[in-house]
Amino acid sequence: MKDKRSILRRGLLAGAMTLAGFGATVAVASAPAGASNTEMTAVGSFTTFFMMHALFPEVNMINPNPEAGSETQSVSSDAQTCSGGLTYSTSNQPPNGSGQGKTFLATEEGLAATSQGCVDFSRSSSPPAPHAETLPSTTTESGDPSPSHLDYYAYALDGVAPLVGSDAPSTVRNAATETGPGNGLTLAQVQQIYECVITNWDQLTVNGVTGANSPIVLFWPQAGSGTRAVYTDVLGFDPTKLISPQVCTTQPIQSFTLNTATAPNEENSEDGIIYQNSVGYANAAGGPVAVGSVTAAAMYIYSAGKFSQQWNDTTDFNSTASNLVDSNLNGGTANTMGNFEAGTLSFAALQNTSGSGEAYVDLTPQVGRFNQDNNRGTYAVDGNTVAEANEWYSNLPSNTGGNPSDSNASIPGVRYVYNIADTVLPSYNGAKDLIGFDNQTSGSKSVLCNGDMASTITAQGFLPLTNGSGAPAGSDAAGATCREFAGLSFPSQGTPIHWTTPTFDNRSQ
After folding, report:
1. How far apart are CA 488 and CA 147, in angstroms?
2. 150-164 and 463-464: which strand pairing?
């Protein structure tokens, strides 16, 4: 569901911010020198958009979904920053995804001082990374923009794994049978599916159970998606580039076209799958798939946190909710999403390095008869699988260079989610006050990094970080519930960033 809020006046930091649900007024008048005296604005990841809006409803969270009709989102100017203001519309779409959010911050670095500050921080579900990365397939991809001066603050954990239809073997997709020795997909099998080596679910037998005779319909997130970037690294190749090791002749579905209208396959949304189900798909590698059969045949890379949050929200995510793809292609003006097929699509389990299936999400079954729209039980992210010790990028060897795929993690796809500030922009200190902490002994912490908001993070489907011994070396000298990582290097492989003088205003206290 798309949330369009009225834009608060700029000048918010000159007063005080009340955090809804926490019963406290957070003083920001004494923000450190250099802090932006404007309303905070954030762009970037769709994966964390709703969670960050729930955490900070006063912040101008720019919704990354493409604008339709006459809808707009705006950032106002003031005397010091964001000269002329900024408006997103159909002719100037907002940054859609983690990568585009990072690029926006990097672009602001090159602007005149009075034009900087339109955006204070970006949301990201992809990690800090060297600018140039080389995958095992020998193809290259871009990590952080260069030049840039990005400072990442991880605050929660998520798992990324395939969402699969009911044609997949039950030992992959059924919460009662998908875990334990021999169950779940192997990473090699997921790779073979996206390489088009395995093209039909009946070619896949998992612990004695074979899938249905049904060509697999592959979906992939839109360009700029953090979820897309993470799973490209996990696979070790980019499924959109039709080169070895792939034998695909068509790309997985990333967007949709009808006449002259187009719509992206938005990350962590079932709208695209359900739309394609209504029209069928002629180009699956294993053969054409009829109208009404696409959802059952689908595979799509998905966030465990978003899947849990959507599954549990029967009001906004159900089989009769608005379909954003269909609306955009057919000239609709409704800019909401939430079409959800709980009876057909489920979150797959994957095998760990010991060959045992692990679940990324755990189901508490409904009481009474299952109904996909109003009585379907509840899901929560599994904290044993989605654990900090399994985070993909923290398990890269120190000598990995630019290769993001040779992780020693015991299960693929576990990631941090982040907010990012830019150390050379005028809004850096103010942003760090809101979403970061000072990464040194006795360093001060924002409310987000002080553990005050853990219940909201959990309610949004993700796992909040704790201030424990599990933090990678150098990422949490202050005992925060966040981790700090410098940009242009993988997590824990860069030099920690902290204030030379701790000028933080202690507002979390």
Report:
1. 9
2. antiparallel
Number of CB atoms found within 10 A of residue 258's CB: 15
Query: Cis before residue 252, ω within 30 degrees of 0?
Result: no
Per-residue model confidence as pLDDT tens digits over 351-407: 999 999 999 999 999 999 999 999 999 999 999 999 999 999 999 998 888 899 999
CB neighbours (10 Å) of residue 461?
25
Number of H helices, E strands in the chain: 11, 25
> What is the pTM (predicted TM-score) of this model?
0.90
Model confidence over 432-471: pLDDT tens digits?
999 999 999 999 999 999 999 999 999 999 999 999 778 9
If one counts every other C-beta atom within 10 angstroms of the C-beta of residue 402, the result is 15
Q: What percent of the chain has pLDDT over 70?
A: 90
| Residue 150 φ/ψ, nearest 5 degrees | -90, 140
Is 476 a residue whose pLDDT tops 70? yes
pLDDT at 487 over 60: yes
Closest CA to 446 of 454, 438, 437, 455: 437
Report residue 491 CA to chain centroid gap.
17
CB 429 within 8 A of CB 407: no
Beta-carbon-side half-sphere exposure of residue 329 (alpha carbons within 13 Å): 20
Going 267 to 270 to 274 to 280, the CA torsion angle's sign is positive
Q: Is the dihedral of CA 386, 388, 392, 395 positive or negative?
A: negative
The distance of Cα 385 from the centroid of its chain, to the nearest Å, equals 18
